[in-house]
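Our preliminary data section would be incomplete without showing what the modeling component actually yields. Below, a chain of 452 amino acids is followed by its predicted structure, encoded as tokens that our downstream tools consume directly.
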Amino acid sequence: MLPSTDTALLRRIATEQSANRVPSLVAAVVRDGELVWSGARGWVTDGEAPGSAPDNDTQYRLGSITKSLVAALVMRLRDEGRLHLNDPLDKHLPGTSFGSSTIGQLLSHTGGLTAESPGSWWERSPGSDWAALEASLTPETIKNRPGSRFHYSNVGYGVLGELVARHRGMSWLDALRHEVLTPLGMSRTTPHPEGRHAEGWAVHPFADVLLPEPAPDAGAMAPAGQLWSTVNDLARWTSFVGGHTGGVLNPDTVAEMRAVATVDDADAWTSGYGLGLQVVRYNGRRLAGHSGSMPGFLACTLVDENSGTGALALANTTSGAAIMSLTMDLIRIADEQEPKLPEQWRPAEVDKGLLTLTGLWHWGPTPYHLRLIPGGMLDLSPVGTGRASRFRPTGEDEWVGLDGYYAGETLRVGRAADGTPTHLDLATFIFTRTPYDPGAPIPGGVDEAGWR
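Predicted structure:
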């Protein structure tokens, strides 16, 4: 990035580290799948003495960012047809006291489960195995009717980790290494620190002194927040969330994960949750990713799917740093200092047989334009205001909606005997070349006297 952008970004993380007394802080910006800037402030310890500045290969604990990686494993199972998001948990993990919660609800924190596992504070205590966790989850751990509201549940992701293990015949961590980390080149993302890493600290609220924080293995709760990672690896994951999926998931599946499934603050709608991903609104943007915290660490990764710009930040402090605000500011600064130029328009290869579909169509008296867009897709948009959607081809004269009101709905082309397109059938709505064309199968028919 330009020297002026570098200075603005560095100043932002320097202010955060200094003003909030953070032992060390690393951050980065990605754009269109590439790491384009990184910076660091503070120091990481070498034994008992202060060491040197962290770098892009220094490990920090990710906390709940771990959940988004576990969610990717669940979505891979869904895409393989091994499960459905509407399946009750009991279909895959029979015998639990919360088996009526669906997999989709657990992914979006609407399954009604308690926030924390019963017993000792799991983030600071050695964890037990699945059998012990399951035994502790009595009917009293259901705090809300499944599907009724957003209620963040670390327990729910412990459960999802076991779900993955049952289907894969290996631990969730081994599945993660095999299916996600290795294909994405995230070799420095591990369950425990390996090599150079930041120690986790609590900073005294009224004095400039530190207290080391513990980092035990969380056992069956590990899918909720166990992982450690680096700037380089988390930049790759940030790009993945933005759509550069490296074949690990279909980009459409990741877009589904980014879509808002529930809203945290219903009145304001500034934050919500998708399928394993947090979604926030900031200065007219919608950003997706996840934040994380464990004793001694704060972390955040967010990406703007529209601009292609994302950012991440990692700090080794229990509290103090405004880690999400910092990450959002890094995205804002990068895009303000160096706004992304639109891609140059170029002619595209299209199926010329589809050209006859383009142009003006009418839903009743309302005019719409149908355009071809890259990938054999269609864009159906009203001439004025109304419902617009894109459609992906699924078969001969058949497309499925990708967004808006018609997401998931099927669009079919009706043709005359000579092959001329006569109408579009979209979720029972009939679109015709002229308003209420009497020659098309208009539901309810068309008055024989016509327009008057």
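The mean pLDDT is 94. The longest strand covers residues 285-294. Preliminary results of this kind motivate Aim 1 of the renewal.
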